[in-house]
Every structure is written in structure tokens, then in C-alpha cells.
Amino acid sequence: MRGASxxxxxxxxxxxxxxxxxxxxxxxxxxxxxxxxxxxxLSYQSSEPQNPLQPANxxxxxxxxxxxxxxxxxxxxxxxxxxxxxxxxxxxxTTDAQNYTVTLKSGWTFHxxxxxxxxxxxxxxxxxxxxxxxQINSDWFSDIEGYEAVHPEKGDPTAETMSGLKVVDDTxxxxxxxxxxxxxxxxxxxxxxxxxxxxxxxxxxxxxxxxVGNGPYKFVSWEHNKAITVAAFDKYAGVDKPKNGGIVFKNxxxxxxxxxxxxxxxxxxxxQVDPADLASYKNDLGDRxxxxxxxxxxxxxxxxYQDGWKPVDKxxxxxxxxxxxxxxxxxxxxxxxxxxxATSWVAPGVMGYKENSCGDACKYDPAKAKQLVxxxxxxxxxxxxxxxxxxxxxxxxxxxVCNSIRQATGVECIGDPKPDFKTSRDLxxxxxxxSMMRTGWVQDYPLNANFLRxxxxxxxxxxxxGYSSPEFDxxxxxxxxxxxxxxxxxxxxQAEAQLAKDMPAIPLWYYKTTSGYSKNVQxxxxxxxxxxxxxxxxxxxx
Amino acid sequence: xxxxxxxxxxxxxxxFLGTVTLIFFMVNVLPGDPAAAMWGDKAADPAQLAAFKxxxxxxxxxxxxxxxxxxxxxxxxxxxAMDGRKVIDKISAAMPVxxxxxxxxxxxxxxxxxxxxxxxxxxxxxxxxxxxxxxxLLLISIPVPVLGFIYQNVFAIQLKWITPTVQDSMNLGQLxxxxxxxxxxxxxxxxxxxxxxxxxxxKSDYMRTAVAKGLPKRKVIGTHLLRNSMIPVVTFLGTDxxxxxxxxxxxxxxxxxxxxxFELYHAINLKEGATVSGFVVVLVLVYLAASLLVDLLYAVxxxxxRYA
Lengths: 542, 308
Hints:
The structure holds 2 protein chains of 2 kinds.
Chain A: H1 2-25, E1 41-46, H2 61-70, E2 75-77, E3 84-86, E4 89-94, E5 99-104, H3 118-129, H4 147-150, E6 165-169, E7 172-176, H5 184-187, H6 199-202, H7 204-207, E8 217-223, E9 227-232, E10 246-251, H8 255-263, H9 281-285, E11 289-302, H10 314-323, H11 327-332, E12 339-341, H12 366-375, E13 383-389, H13 395-409, E14 412-418, H14 421-429, E15 436-442, H15 448-456, H16 470-481, H17 485-502, E16 505-516, E17 521-522, E18 538-539
Parallel strand pairs in A: 1-10, 13-14, 13-15
Antiparallel strand pairs in A: 2-3, 4-5, 5-7, 6-7, 8-9, 9-10, 11-15, 11-16, 12-16, 17-18
Chain B: H1 2-29, H2 34-37, H3 46-55, H4 62-73, H5 87-122, H6 127-141, H7 144-158, H8 172-201, H9 205-212, H10 217-246, H11 249-255, H12 260-269, H13 273-301
Helix pairs in contact in B: 1-13, 5-6, 5-8, 5-10, 5-12, 5-13, 6-8, 7-8, 7-11, 8-10, 9-10, 10-13, 11-12, 12-13
Protein name (chain A): ABC transporter substrate-binding protein
Keywords (chain A): Signal
InterPro entries (chain A): Peptide/Ni-bd (IPR030678), SBP_5 (IPR039424), SBP_5_dom (IPR000914)
């Protein structure tokens, strides 16, 4: 089973590569533009990285997207469908979802010419997981056996290496996890799992200012606060060879300024259109405007730990409240079309996404909503408050949602703003919410497990609702033990079906990538993380 | 004069220490944990958070942090920002940009402002005077962001004379438009101050004497009238130079200029105490130097003013 699916991925990757080259040789790309300058560089709206450019040390987008262009790990996600594809890995095999054997492709080198070997990965992971090295993403390695020894809760590490990682030879290494995690391969696509060259360990801080990676682009310069420049790496061995000469990540303080530069063709690709220009950007940019779903969702969750919400009947009430929300109108008017109404708990573009898994409960039907709320014995105290942070532009839609609920069901509903994100999170973490709270989820990797297990599993770190369902946990546990990602995704769909029955959180809408590009470039596509597929962008000949 | 300068320099020390102390504690009592903020929306890993704080001395009591900070400050060490860069590096990268921008704005407001004020004052009640009144009122009443967006739209988007934002922050030519926006408000004030002062002094005794002596008109206006009328203007300009340096946040944002405003904005957002304090310390020094210069200029402009 494992082998079969692996072959499929390799074929898929090869198909993408073929399609890519075919596309490059013909002039008829999607935008039907003129001749392409393969050595041309493009500029992209970015921000100053918060940390030195070390793969395990970038959590924010400013550094993260630069590192993504400089480094390539074992696997990554096909931007077209979010599926996993092999990069440095030839194959990753497992029979029990706990012990993995990784085989590397040969021919991969770092930008300084040294080969990428099994040790490049194992040493990098050990270094990054070590608490002493202060890497912000170190907990990504916590699935690996021996993580506690290098990263104890308190005090100094008792070991330098994780016992779960073993180098077999230059092209093979093994990973042992503390328990079965069927989608561990999906996690491996995260930048924290990138390999590091030997040169890194001599002076990590210095390396962070001029990194040497193995990705499609090599580092050129970092002018702090101004720009980071990278150039195409001609010996790149991955399936996604750059179709342009390089990228300039230009810093902007204000999104409005970047937008003005884009409209006048002084900036090539935009990150996000600022709220002020949302209403007009499609008009300004025409078919160069981008509007697509992102791997992120906005929910409102119930405080399932409050006695009022515990009785079995209350599931009906929660479904009724969900039906009372007019998602279409709110996303169109209040949110200026910058969101897409949700029909499930998983965002589209993610493997395992099942449209309409929420069913009728996510369709606006005020009459049915009122009926369900009454049948379920009404809302505790006949009043709902929605806790949210008022520093993130949420007030408008929370008020609109409340209005919608009030009009449809007659239940009293008011927003309960907290001054900032931190205050509202404190309240939510301490489980002191009375009835409802704003919650959201941005994907770590494009697999439905990330939207389900990590948010609705009993005791999961992000389970703000305090939801606990034996059925959901059963499916999740089964899914985690399965040895193919396809099976995992399928079992998680069954777990998701349980959410439709219990409705611990109401899915509202998916975030969207609202962006655009200049007249200088073509073939600009965005992946489900909201990042442009940099290697595919073509710079037009001037 | 020498004693005056020495005394003023000595006075600067407590002012300087006081401001630095105030800023340090003000930044540190702000809610929010700068280290935890690095994890963004996600919960910080406790072991990592502790290690991170320890590496930067943030786990020490505040008073100890203060002592360390002050101790280092006197050796010229402004500390290290969260991203591992030296604050002094950030300052030395951002300062030249903002100094250029501020001096350009300063030059524009000085030359154009004084010129408008002078002509309006000499031609009191005439068309030019009334026109300048309307113009300066307009400039004073339009907020800086609005002015910035208007200029951006007219000159960059419509006329395409320039790029909407500054592409190279060190290029003086590209900084002209942001400097005009930055200097507009003060330009209006300078024009109004100069005009009032001119109108007042034009009827004074020494003016009548100068005219009666038969001095050429250029000398009467240049040496006698303008010089004596500049005292309130110089006072304003002196404090304004400091304000231009620190107050460029909005203008720098609109035009994407990578100066002090840009750095401060980021540092405040990330609750980065060391960076905020570092920049404020330098701005305090600029203010102090500018006000000393103003005091010294008084004597040059009006010999009747003596320093004891």
C-alpha cells in the first residue's frame, strides 16, 4: 500500500515537472503574454524577518517565505492540489506509521557545492530541536523519540542528539517516533525540517545573515529593512526549477504603499491587498487580480465546558444557531468579499477537504434555525456573548453574526470585545468563556488532520471549545495509526462527520488570498498558504 | 558665552538621564511580552521561552535590567534587539535616511516659509498677503496622511512623474516629495510667524532710523528687518528639527522610506524595549543639541541678548 502510493507521488511529481517544462517552452502560458525573460527578476511585497534566516527559526511570513525559497526539505506540497510530493527524498517508507526509513535522491547539493546527505538532515534536526539553540519552531520535532532529552520542560538538555534519528549511510536515515503519526510525512514539508550544510555549525548567527541552502534560489544579499535578494540556483535538483532569474523581497511598512507601487508597476507581486483598496482592486487590476481560498478558517466556538451547553439536546441548539447565520450576505457586505462562506471545518485546497461536510447546518434557514433552537430547549440564559479581540478588525462581522442570530431566532446575542489578542486568549485558555468565542485556524500543513485533530481532539492544545467526543477521538486515533496519508485523510473525514452531529464550533468562512500582480510578470499562482508559487512566475521581456 | 555653553551642556546630563529612565520604564510597563510575541498567534513553547528570555537577560528583575542597560549605554552599547541585531546598527542604518529627509524638509520650510512670510509682511493687505493666508490655512488644516495620499495620486498615479513610493531611501531626489509633505505643516507655521514678526517690526524705531539714514532698501530689509524678525521663527525651527526627526513615522510609512519612523513603528509593534529606548535616546540628543543651537543663535541675531 505504502509503496503503491509512493509511486503515485513520484509519477505526479514527474507529471508536474513535465507540464512545467512544456509550459515554459511555449509562449502560450495562462496569461497569454509576450516573450519571457528567463533571467529576469521579480519583486515581491514582504516584511523584515524577525529572526536570523535559520530554517527552524522562522514562524512569521517575512522570514518564512525567504527560507522557503532558499531551502528544500525531503518533501513539499504540490501548489496545484496541496498534495505531498518528494523533493530531496527518493522515498519515505513505513509499515507502522512510527518507524520511517528515508532514502535520499542523489545529486542534491547545497549552494556552496557540498552534497546533501542523510547527516545534513539528522544533524540539522538535532541542532534545531535543542533547547539551547533557541529555535522558535523546535517543538515541530517533538514527535521524534528522544525529543525530551534535548528539549526538556525545564533545565539543561541531557543529550545532544535525539535517539529516534539514526544515519544509516549517506543516502539513508531512519526516524523513530514516540507513537504512530500517519501524517508525519506531511509535517516534513515544513521549513523547520530543512537540511543544513556543514558550514552552518561553525557560526549559526553569521549563517543566519547570509544563509546557504539547497533550494531553488540562492542567497544574494540582505539589506536590513529594505530588501532581501535571492537568485535562481542553476544546479537546483528539485522538481520545481525556477522559471525566473530571482526574487527581490521588498519591505513595506504599509500595505497601501505596496498597492500603489503595484498599480504603477514598480512592484511585481503583492502579498495582500490592503482593506482600503479591497473594493476597487479588481477594477484596477483586471485579470491580474487574484482572489482564491486560503488554508485558513474562521469559526465561532462554544464553551462546551459550561454546564448549560453539556446536555445532549443542545447539539440541536448549536446547529440551529449555525443555520441562523447568513454567511453569504456577511462575507459579501461586511467583509467586502474577502472571505468565502464555509461549508465544512476544513479549508479547501487541503487534502481531505470535503465540501459540504457541515450539511444543512451551514445553510442559512431562519425558520428551521428557530425551530431547532426551540426543540433543543433554547440557549442557556437565552443570551449569547461572543468573545473576541477588538484589535484585529473582528468587531464588524461579530456584530453582523449576532444580528443575524438575533433576527432569525430571537436569542439575545452581543459581542464581548477584549482589548487585545493576548487578553482574549488568556480568557479562552483559562476556560472562562461563558457561551461563545471567536476561534480560527491557519494550516500548518495542507492535510485535514491539521484542522481536526489539532483543534477538536480531546485535550488538544488548540481545543478552545473544550470539546471531547469519544467517537471523534476513536476515528482520529485510527487515522493516526494508518500507514497511508490517503487512509488518514479518509478516516479524518469520518471524524469530521462527528463534528456535524455535535457542532462544537460553527464554521463561518475561509480566508482568501486577495492579491494581484504587475504587467511585468505572468503565470502568477498562489498556493493554499497564500504564498505565490515563486518558481513558476515568468518575467516578461522588456 | 563659553560659560553659558558649558552650563547648558551640564544641564543636558540630568535631562538626558531623566528621559532615558522614563522611556525605559514606560516601554517595560506596556502590556505584552516581547518574547512571547515572537510566537505570534501560537502558544509559546515554555522551555524555549525561558531559554530565550535568559539569553537576553529578560528573566532578570526590571531594576537589574535597567542597571545593565544604563551601564552599557555609557560604553556606547545600545543593547541587542530581538532579532539579534545590535540596536546601534539599526540606528546607524536608519539615521542617515531620516536626517536627509528631515534636513530637506527643514530646508524647504525655511526657504519657502520665510520667503512667503517676508513678502506677505511687506505687502500687508495686498493680494499676495491674502493668498498666502489662504494657502497656509489650507496646509495647516490638511492632515499629513491626506496630503501624502493626494500628492501620491496626483504626481505618481496620474501624472507618472515619480514612483508612488521611494525606491532608494538614500536618494535625495526621490526624497523631495516626502520632504515637501513632511515640511508642509511647518512651512505654513514659519510663513505665518515670519509675516507677523515682519509686520510688527516694520513700524519700529530702528526701521525708521535705517530708512531715514538713506540705507539701500536691500540692506534695510535684509539686515535690519529680517534679522530682527527671525527670533521667534528660529525658536520654532529649532524645536521643529527634532519634531521632524521623530515625527516622520506617518510620512515614512506612506512613502515607504526606511528611516527612524519605520524602525520605531516596528519596534513599538513588537514591544521591543531596547530598540525603542535606543532610538528615543538618540532623538533626545538631537532635541537637546537643536535647542542649544537655538539659544546660541539668539545672540547672533540680536546682540542685545546677553548670556550670563
